């Protein structure tokens, strides 16, 4: 398998294209600390052609574990697609109403969170790791939908993609404490004398608090750490990790 999306609600829109690469495409991040930029460029070209999209339609951001969201306009097409120097930095979310542009982030345990409001024809994508979640990036995304296109949160569908799930996200005490005070013991819990956090569920809680209907939220069943054949995991693979790509776009 080279690409997957275990979403039903978003996948049923024929004008919406979304994809997550599996590790067969190789590393897709330009921010990798030692992998070669030329290899990333080639891997990305193959990923884009498998999706039947052009590099000048893709918009990619340099990630910073922030809660900043970039409003994508037509002129941004191609930025960050095939070279590191044109990445838009530093942001961890993208939102647009432009058709035929494809929002892209990279992931290797952090969650890609996909947004679609079919009434306003607006799409969004966040890179949600523990820092971004504590900084409330997904609440900010919902706020941006309201501010930019006057979305009613009840119309927004959200798919929380594959990431490191509760079976594998062990954390230090200080991170545990922050999640425990923000979300309580269902999301930050102790097991076998270690501390664990359920990031996907934390994202879901913040979405519901932002007005998204529970039945409009889908959560991927895939754990990047468990699914060694499909995904690279930063936690599991350590310095040998590679980053997968996540893409969403609205087509005419
Ligand atoms: Zn797992």
TrEMBL record:
Pfam families: Cu-oxidase_4 (PF02578). CDD domains: YfiH (cd16833). It catalyses: adenosine + H2O + H(+) = inosine + NH4(+); inosine + phosphate = alpha-D-ribose 1-phosphate + hypoxanthine; adenosine + phosphate = alpha-D-ribose 1-phosphate + adenine; S-methyl-5'-thioadenosine + phosphate = 5-(methylsulfanyl)-alpha-D-ribose 1-phosphate + adenine. Keywords: Hydrolase, Metal-binding, Transferase, Zinc. InterPro entries: Cu_polyphenol_OxRdtase, Cu_polyphenol_OxRdtase_sf, Cytotoxic_necrot_fac-like_cat. One of its GO terms (molecular function) is copper ion binding. Belongs to the purine nucleoside phosphorylase YfiH/LACC1 family. NCBIfam families: peptidoglycan editing factor PgeF (TIGR00726). This is Purine nucleoside phosphorylase. It comes from Candidatus Kerfeldbacteria bacterium CG08_land_8_20_14_0_20_40_16.
């Amino acid at each position: 398998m080279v690409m997957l999306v275990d979403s039903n609600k978003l996948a049923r829109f024929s004008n919406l294209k979304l994809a997550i690469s599996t590790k067969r495409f190789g590393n897709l991040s330009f921010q990798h600390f030692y992998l070669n930029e030329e290899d990333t460029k080639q891997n990305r070209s193959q990923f884009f052609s498998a999706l039947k999209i052009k590099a000048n339609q893709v918009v990619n951001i340099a990630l910073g574990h922030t809660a900043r969201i970039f409003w994508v306009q037509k002129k941004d097409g191609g930025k960050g697609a095939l070279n590191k120097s044109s990445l838009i930095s530093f942001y961890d979310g993208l939102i647009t109403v432009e058709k035929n542009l494809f929002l892209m982030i990279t992931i290797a345990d952090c969650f890609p969170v996909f947004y679609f409001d079919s009434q306003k024809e607006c799409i969004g994508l966040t890179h949600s790791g523990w820092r971004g979640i504590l900084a409330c990036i997904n609440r900010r995304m919902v706020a941006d939908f309201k501010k930019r296109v006057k979305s009613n949160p009840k119309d927004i569908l959200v798919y929380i993609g594959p990431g490191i799930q509760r079976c594998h996200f062990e954390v230090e005490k200080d991170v545990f404490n922050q999640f425990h005070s923000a979300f309580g013991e269902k999301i930050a819990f102790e097991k076998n004398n270690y501390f664990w956090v359920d990031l996907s569920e934390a994202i879901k809680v913040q979405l519901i608090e932002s007005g998204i209907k529970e039945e409009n939220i889908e959560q991927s069943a895939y754990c990047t750490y468990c699914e060694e054949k499909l995904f690279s995991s930063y936690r599991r693979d350590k310095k040998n990790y590679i980053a997968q790509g996540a893409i969403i776009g609205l087509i005419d």
